[in-house]
Amino acid sequence: MNTTDLDRAAISLRKGQLHRIHDGAGQRIEALSGALWVTIDNDRRDIVVEPGEGFSIDRDGDTIVSALDDARFALLEPVALRRTA
User: Fold this and answer.
1) In sequence order, what DSSP letters do the residues of 3-65 get, joined into one string?
2) For the chain, what is the largest distance between any 2 Cα atoms, rounded to a whole number of angstroms?
3) Distance between CA 84 and CA 61 in Å, rounded?
4) CA-CA distance, 35 to 49, in Å (whole number)?
């Protein structure tokens, strides 16, 4: 994977900041730095994503990404929706 491309598209959060994703089923969160806590509406799981790890959102509803530390992550589109060059 070319991480340079991910760095350009990265979303930065300060510790404690939130990023909301609405109906993100199929999107993938790739942690580039810092730890992230991910929660999805009506889902009992506690999902922690560390640098170098990823999580694919597996249902619609609101997904909240919270920075446990200062963090950067990339939000990737579902493979079926990615455009070809």
Assistant:
1) HHHHHHTPEEE-TT-EEEEES-TT-EEEEEES-EEEEETT----EEE-TT-EEE--S-SEEEE
2) 39
3) 28
4) 6
Task: Report the candidate in 11, 7, 12, 19 with the shortest Cα–Cα distance to residue 65.
Answer: 19
List, for residues 10-35, the tens digit of each pLDDT value. Answer: 999 999 999 999 999 999 999 999 99
* 2 vs 85: CA distance, rounded Å: 16
Beta bridge partners of 56: 28
Q: How far, in Å, are 18, 59, 70, 73 from residue 51 at the CA level? A: 17, 23, 11, 9
pTM: 0.82
| Structural domains of the chain ordered from first start | 3-78 (2.60.120.10)
